[in-house]
Amino acid sequence: MSRSTRIPMIACLLLLLVHGCTYASNVNSDSSYYVANGIISRQVLTNYLSRSITQAELIASEGCYNDGPYPDKEDDIRMLKNIGAKFIGRSVYSWGKENFYLMPSFWANAKAAIDDYHAYDSTVVFQAAIFEIVTEKVEDIPIPAWVFEAFDLPVEQRNFGYQAMLNSEGHLVDHWRKGSSVPDITQRETRLFFYYLARRYMEIGIEAIHFGQAQLMAMDDREAGLAAWKELLDKVRLSALTVARRGTIICDSHLPNGGMVLNGKLLFDYVSFPLRLKEVIDEPQKVELEVGYLDGIYQKTVGGITPSGWSCERSLYLVEFDNFGISKHRDEPNRKDHYAWGYDEITWFSKQPEGYRNEFLRYAHQWVKKTDPYGFLQMPGSRIITGAETNRYRANTQSPDCPTGKSQENTIKEIWKN
To answer: Whole-angstrom Cα distance, residue 362 to residue 356?
Structure first.
């Protein structure tokens, strides 16, 4: 057993003695959001996922936004407190803009935002994202000595290397555009860079990381890909024991095959995936959810031993309103693609009348809950949309403080309360 796996298991045994429970038992109400020493119990993870909301770039700051301005952010903080959110999804990230990582304000302002919120509720988890993209700008970032040390490598005075992160056979090179590729996780340089980002995020108070499309970055090399992801995640979790604010980092990825398992052990704490909306052909703009539709994740996650040491028949998972652009067949159905009436999921949702938006949230929450006890609906709070009068959907109750709000705030609060 390696050091990276031995330490969390020891910490887990200590926690079991303290709480007097087994892996499968529920924690008591006083510790419903308790995590420490690399361990999150099944019940606590359930508690967080059941109060999860996408709030893209909430703690990013001016000059560090990926998709344009983010006005009236103070009202988002008010909304999150009002509805009782506990897991703030995608609160900070960069999509191919590695120059952000060289800006002190990117880190300092995000840390200040986390600290301010934790003064109100210290149990709220903020999630960052490390996506399936790397650009030539990565070569401007010096590699700290602690990155080399974590991988037992000689310390060098050099920057990250873009070419060293790419697939040696050219797979997905320049995938996004020239000089912007999908990084290959089996390349050590990619793991060095991802470790750098994960630790920097933990240093500012981040307690969860979404690792984008992990399978895509494994480059279809199942054996090498699994081994590479395991090495990276083991090192990230080992670092979390001393760097993360509660000694714990919660990791997930979009995993269309339902999970990554190596020797019976799950690599990620939970799985996340798009909703996959099925168009109701004879009812324009209406959609439904269905087990087995396209590559939907419902009832498909795989089981094993979680990183925290408890067993599950199938992984817990979130389904979210994804964003990926709009098609050429707007307002027309096509069940052969992932669009809903020609739009990505959050753009479709934003286009609907207020009444149907609220109705759909209630329907989707109940459908997921009844269809699969391992699944949870991640509520839409703030996320980029395409081809609309504003650049992002906002769940806030519409008011002078948030004139672009779509007024799902009270519905989310009601769903969570009930």
So the answer is: 10
Buried b (16+ CB within 10 A) or exposed e, 131-140: bbbbbebbee
Could you give the CA distance from residue 172 to residue 216 in angstroms, rounded to a whole number? 9
Q: Are 392 and 357 in contact (CB under 8 A)?
A: no
pLDDT in tens, 15-74: 333 333 333 333 233 489 999 999 999 999 999 999 999 999 999 999 999 988 899 999
∠ Cα 69 73 77 (to 5°): 155
**Type of residue at 77:** I
CA distance 31 to 241: 19
How far apart CA 31 and CA 33 sit, in angstroms, is 5
What's at 246, amino acid-wise? R
Calculate the CA dihedral of residues 60, 378, 319, 50 and round it to 10 degrees: 130
- Give the list of residues 6+ apart from residue 71 with CB closer than 8 angstroms, or none: 404
- Residue 257's nearest CA partner among 224, 236, 226, 289 is 226
Instruction: Kindly report, residue by residue over 247-283, the tens digit of the pLDDT.
Output: 999 999 999 999 999 999 999 999 999 999 999 999 9
The side-by-side arrangement of strands in the sheet containing 375-377 is 375-377, 317-320, 270-274, 250-254, 208-210, 125-129, 87-93, 52-55, 379-384, 392-394
pTM of structure: 0.92
Burial of 100 (C-beta count, 10 Å sphere; 0-12/13-18/19+)? buried
Phi, psi angle pair for 134, to nearest 5°: -145, 140
